[in-house]
Design a protein that fits this description.
Helices cover 35% and strands 16% of the residues. It is α/β, with parallel strands linked by helices. The N terminus and C terminus are likely disordered. Helix 9 crosses helix 17 and helix 15 runs parallel beside helix 16.
Length: 589
């Protein structure tokens, strides 16, 4: 084969070429060894116990010197070598024109004093991946999953996770931008950690939605929600005293195959998509998460079965709007739910996350059928936000109260045990007294088992922030009125005396209780018994309260949870081509 324009027959020219390459290689090697020797002359010598400073420190050989130099630590690569790094020492951020992390070159520590040699311990550089990391997570289930992925990456690299800020070498704050108080809480923690001299990495929706939040804050690095798989690089840089920004938004979502450290070992939270198709006038999350981008069905099913093999007993599907899932990749939420439910091993439960009405309306019958399955919790979270059409229009919610009612009534008709959760915003700028009464009437009609009540907060950069606000006192009084109405009823007393299967997944040590949920996702607490975690048992309901049922365990009635994990392991040992539904049915059969 011709090479560099020379034919195989050009032997004379080939000989010259080989001689030239050999000479160049020898010259380069000599230059490198000379450089190493020169650097060793400039470095402080190791501590010598005999106190003799007359003999120079010389390596045993040139090859040994080169090996020792490399073992001490090669220069770290610069991700964008064309742009010089500016570290945090002068208050500027180390990044290139694309917002990517820049790695500084390792520097040999200087002597501590004139003529004074450093000890071996003092000269030893701090190894990355050996420090303690404190992680604080705020916000939704999607944020929780992001934190678990980042903790998994950090732990896999060797970092040690700690629950105490005072024990940490670096602080990671995964923030929420939905409300002013949530953002204020995140920023207060950032400032507190910096006041303690700790480097901080701020991730999540706050910096992703507003890049200006860290202006004037030194020693704070930021990470976009689409870049969570680069957390190790950012933490490493933060610990070296650099502030970096990775705020460019990737079009490709982080992989679902990343390592994970679950806050609750029984629950696997799987983000099925990022972003949404809405344009709500009050919402800043869209600024952070962007437009809808869905994971493939195979990736989601694969993640669920991997979690089962690792001991998880519940799968929660999370998204900014689960109802919109798949519209960007030619599928839909009903197809996904069916595939995941078919694929899960026996005893493993599936829970659907938050959905807005517009896109779920097309799947009422299909979703209801899936919620009837024995391995799917009969639960749905549909934020209504207001009981008034004019307010919904001002919010740009893209549905009416009639649409909301059609969705809820359609699901309840087919799934009578359905637990319905919703959200309302009190004091939206366009809300009149009549509009507020509409919200109260909706709460009275549906007697929501879970009702998240928020006062309106103008989020910077949103359309609603430019609207004329209602008096704060009026907003508070309306919020108080809705809260009083919600507190006036309870939804659990009809279950007193029943014997129900309960899936246990959590512990409340303060009250000495193990926590689980019925098929209809009613919270049940029993006397603490850690062996119940990850399992299901038959429970007799003894007492009903506003928030939960108190019960007595009668017996487990078998342990489908262990079967679930065994089937998942069988699936994982087999083909990963995701004939997932067939594998799941084979386990049950």
């Amino acid at each position: 084969m011709p090479m560099l324009g020379l034919s195989r027959g050009s032997t004379a020219v080939g000989s010259v070429w080989r001689l030239w390459v050999a000479a160049a290689t020898a010259l380069g090697a000599g230059f490198l060894l000379a450089l190493v020797a020169r650097r060793r002359q400039l470095r402080p010598r190791p501590h010598d116990d005999d106190g003799d400073d007359d003999e120079p420190w010389v390596g045993a050989s040139a090859a040994g010197a080169l090996r020792e130099e490399l073992e001490e630590g090669p220069e770290l690569e610069e991700i964008a070598s064309s742009t010089p790094l500016v570290g945090a020492a002068n208050g500027r951020t180390g990044r290139d024109s694309d917002g990517q992390v820049l790695r500084p070159r390792r520097r040999v520590p200087p002597p501590t004093g004139a003529g004074e040699a450093l000890s071996a311990e003092e000269r030893r550089p701090t190894l990355p991946g050996r420090q303690h990391v404190y992680v604080k997570t705020q916000g939704c289930a999607h944020n929780s999953s992001d934190s678990e992925f980042m903790m998994g990456l950090l732990q896999e690299y060797g970092y040690i996770l700690t629950d105490k800020l005072e024990d940490a070498d670096v602080c990671l704050v995964n923030s929420c931008t939905v409300k002013n108080p949530s953002q204020d809480s995140a920023m207060n923690l950032v400032k507190r950690a910096r006041a303690d001299g700790k480097p901080v990495v701020l991730s999540g929706c706050v910096p992703s939605a507003d890049h200006s939040v860290i202006e004037g804050l030194e020693g704070v690095s930021v990470l976009d929600v689409s870049q969570i798989d680069r957390i190790v690089e950012v933490v490493e840089q933060a610990l070296q005293g650099n502030s970096v920004q990775l705020l460019n938004k990737r079009r490709i979502l982080p992989s679902l195959d990343l390592p994970k450290v679950r806050r609750n070992s029984c629950i696997e939270i799987i983000p099925i998509s990022g972003g949404c198709l809405g344009n709500c006038s009050y919402c800043k999350t869209k600024h952070a998460r962007g437009k809808l981008s869905s994971y493939s069905e195979d990736a989601i099913v694969g993640r669920a079965l991997q979690a089962a093999a690792e001991g998880a007993s519940e799968v929660w599907l999370a998204s900014e709007d689960t109802g919109a899932y798949g519209l960007d990749i030619g599928t839909n939420i009903a197809n996904l739910l069916e595939k995941v439910a078919d694929s899960l091993p026996p005893g493993m439960m599936l829970k659907l996350g938050m959905t807005n009405p517009p896109y779920m309306l097309a799947h009422i019958d299909a979703v209801a059928k899936i919620l009837q399955r024995p391995n799917v919790f009969a639960f749905i979270h549909v934020p209504v936000q207001s009981g008034s059409d004019p307010v919904l229009k001002a919010m740009i919610r893209e549905y009416s109260i009639a649409d909301f009612s059609r969705l809820v009534d359609g699901l309840r008709e087919k799934v009578p045990e359905l637990l319905l959760a919703t959200d309302v915003i009190c004091g939206f700028p366009a809300e009149s007294e009549e509009d507020h009464q509409g919200t109260l009437d909706l709460v009275k009609k549906y007697r929501f088992a879970v009702l998240n009540i928020s006062q309106f907060y103008p989020r910077p950069g949103t359309a609603a922030a430019r609207m004329k606000r209602l008096p704060t006192s009026l907003t508070k009084s309306r919020s108080t009125e809705v809260t009083a109405l919600f507190d006036s009823y309870e939804t659990n007393s009809h279950m007193l005396g029943r014997e129900e299967r309960v899936w246990f997944s959590d512990t409340e040590p303060k009250h000495g209780q193990t926590v689980g949920h019925t098929k209809g996702y009613v919270k049940v607490v029993v006397k603490q018994e850690d062996s119940l975690l990850g399992r299901s048992a038959i429970v007799r309901m003894r007492k009903a309260t506003k928030w939960h049922l108190e019960g007595e365990v009668l017996g487990e009635g078998g342990d489908p949870g262990e079967t679930a994990r065994g089937c998942a392991r069988i699936w994982l040992r087999g083909s990963r081509s995701l004939v997932g539904a067939a594998s799941g049915r084979a386990c049950r059969g």
